[in-house]
Amino acid sequence: MFERFTKDAREVVKGAVAHAEQTGAGSVGAEHLLLALLDREGSRASFALGALGLAGRRDPVRAALERARRRGGLTQAETDALAGLGIDVPEIVARVEEVHGAGALSGGRRGGGRRTGHPPLEPGAKDVLTGALRAATARRDRRIGDEHILLALTARPGVPAEVLADHGVTYESVTRVLPGGGGEAKAG
C-alpha cells in the first residue's frame, strides 16, 4: 500500500514515527498521525486544516491529545460515560500516577530492554492508513495523499476524531474544502 502514498503522505507517516519516538511511546498511534499532519505545510491536508481555521490552533489540539493520553487514551465521551456509571477517571489517573509516576497511563515504552528500529504501528494507526486508502478510492484518486489520512482520522471514532471535531474539523467539513469535495462515501 505504501507504494501508492504521495511524498506528503509518506512524510506524515515518518513524522508520526518521529513523534512517537520523541515521546518514548512504544508504538505509533493515530494521535501521532494527527500531530504529524499538524506539522505539515504546503500540502493538501495543511490547506484543508488552514481553511478550517485549525492552523492557528495547533497548541490547543496538542494539549487535548495530551489530556487524552494521560487518561489512557480514552475520549472525553468515554470518560463522561464512565462518570455516569460512577467511575471517576481523573481520580483513577491521579491514584495511578501517585503510585507509578506522572504519565503512567500515557502508553510510554514498557520494559527495560532496548528496542531497535522504529516503533511499530498500533492497530488504530493501521486502521487510519487503511481508511486513507478507502478515502482515496472513494474520491477516485490513484495515489494516497495526506488529505486522505486527514479524512480517515476524521472518519474513525477515537481521540483524534473527537479532538478534530471539537475544533470544527469533521469528515464533512474536510470534504467541503478539498478540491473535488462533497458527496463521497465515508472512509471509516
Question: Which features characterize this protein?
Answer:
188 residues, mainly alpha, Double Clp-N motif
SSE blueprint:
Elements: H1 7-23, H2 30-39, H3 44-51, H4 58-70, H5 76-84, H6 89-100, H7 123-138, H8 146-155, H9 159-166, H10 171-177
Task: Outline the structure in words.
- The protein has ten helices and no strands.
- By secondary structure, it is mostly helical.
- The protein has a domain at about 1-70 and about 120-175: Double Clp-N motif, CATH 1.10.1780.10.
- The two termini are about 15 Å apart.
- The protein has helices spanning about 5-25, 30-40, 45-50, 60-70, 75-85, 90-100, 125-140, 145-155, 160-165, 170-175.
- Mean pLDDT is about 85; it is low at about 110-115.
- Keywords: Repeat.
- InterPro entries: Clp_N_dom_sf (IPR036628), Clp_R_N (IPR004176).
- This is Peptidase.
Short structural summary:
The chain has 188 residues and is an all-alpha fold. It has helices at residues 7-23, 30-39, 44-51, 58-70, 76-84, 89-100, 123-138, 146-155, 159-166, 171-177. It has a domain at 2-71 and 120-177: Orthogonal Bundle (Double Clp-N motif).
Largest sheet: none
How helical, in percent, are the residues? 55-70%
Rg computed from alpha carbons, rounded to a whole number of angstroms: 17 Å
Query: What is the distance, rounded to the nearest whole angstrom, between the alpha carbons of the first and last residues?
Result: 17 Å
Tell me the fraction of residues in β-strands, as a range.
under 5%
